[in-house]
Amino acid sequence: xxxxxxxxxxxxxxxxxxxxxxxxxxxxxxxxxxxxxxxxxxxxxxxxxxxxxxxxxxxxxxxxxxxxxxxxxxxxxxxxxxxxxxxxxx
Length: 90
Known about the structure:
This protein has a domain at about 50-90. The protein is built from three helices and no strands. It has helices spanning about 20-50, 50-60, 65-85.
């Protein structure tokens, strides 16, 4: 008896580690790209955000809205510094 199959062995997907390795490599590349973009954006937000603080400080922090806006921007600036601190470092 011959056990013939209508499908050849080449039509069946590979069962080795190659597809997993390619998928891991592409996801790693995507993550590196997102990390670089996030660090770039955070770095430049951290550089530019202090210029937004200046008008608030010029108006004074006696108004509760100004104080709240200043503190919120300060928290965003610290977070951007933390996320963007590794930008352009090897």
